[in-house]
Write a structure and sequence with these properties.
Layout (H helix, E strand, L loop, with lengths): L2 H21 L9 E2 L8 E2 L12 H7 L25 H11 L2 E9 L6 E6 L15 H10 L8 H15 L3 E4 L9 H11 L6 E3 L15 H15 L5 E6 L2 E6 L8 H10 L6 E5 L11 H10 L20 H11 L5 E6 L6 E4 L5 E4 L7 E9 L2
Parallel strand pairs: 3-13, 4-5, 5-6, 8-9, 9-10, 10-12
Antiparallel strand pairs: 1-2, 4-13, 7-8, 11-12
Helix pairs in contact: 3-5, 8-10
Length: 384
Amino acid sequence: MKRTHLFTTIISVLAVACVFAGCGGRAANDPGVVQEDTGAPEMTVVSGEAVSSDASASEDEAMGVEDEQSPDEASDPVPEEIERKRLTREERARIQDEKQIDIFEKTMEIKGLERDVDILFIADMHLSLCDDRDMEVYDKAVYRYGYMMDANGRPAYQTFHEFVDYANAEEPDLFILGGDIVDSAMLASINFLQSELSNLSVPYMYVLGNHDFEYGNEYFSKKAYEEYRPRVTEVSGSENGAHLFDVAGIHIFAADDANSQYTAEEVQAFKDSCLDGKPVLFISHVPFEPGMGDPFLYEKSIELFGTDSRGNSRALMGENSVVPNDTTREMMDLVLSDDSPVFCVLAGHIHYPHEDFLTENITQIVTGAAYRSRGVLLHLKPAQ
């Protein structure tokens, strides 16, 4: 997608948004159309100012008062002896400044790691692009598009483009999209995502969150699973919700969100990945309830999202949060056990950055929202 087309579109779209806000309905003959260079269907980029009234609206309303603080063709494989390009801290800082993105960097030493590994992680981009293929959710897309902007007023799709550019410059071993990358399973959003990822020069993993395959009022419903989830699994590449990437002697395992629960298929896939005893980086869209006596994340989740009817946190997984079902409890017990191979959990969902310890041996890093230009760069190094 050409930048000039995008810029022209945004100017036109803002005008449409003003008309929309004034008349309370969709303006006729919207001019906000972006033509893909690849010949893909035309995309109408929509804008607005309010927050959706869908099942998860209270989460996003809460986010409005947050105060974040940063803690093709196959080719011959590159021989392992060829050293990967590594950017200096100064080079990374320069690129971040140019792209206006905020990356939290964390270095960890891992036993069994064969070489240095870099992992780029983002979550909660909430792309909300809509065209005439999904007109029944157009109004909601308008509202959500207008809300999902960074502090400089930059829309989510533009910020995602900058993250792709940053990944291509930084060259991490894996770029993890940790859920809620699209705000709803609208085809324009998914097509845009596919187009951007086709320009990515590093491997990626796309983990589904609680928004990726919602659609209007269909939220983890039978229709959502049967009709809308296939739209995003084409991009995510996982039919059973489990994702596995092996690099330099470790496993990177991820499980799609199932309404803040894990499925039996995901649990079995995790068990299988642990058979060889290699270290595991675990990816979950929804964070685990904090351990080690640190109440901050739990208290912050309640401040941002409130509580359910039992007084539990609505935004975490755990006995005092979204209570695990049997398969989720089994997964959490496996991850948090004394002999667990997991050394770190990466999560998103709450749109607030935080780092804590789940056990003495397991760090949890929660990233701030990608639509607010937040991300995590994890530097893994072999333990000496």
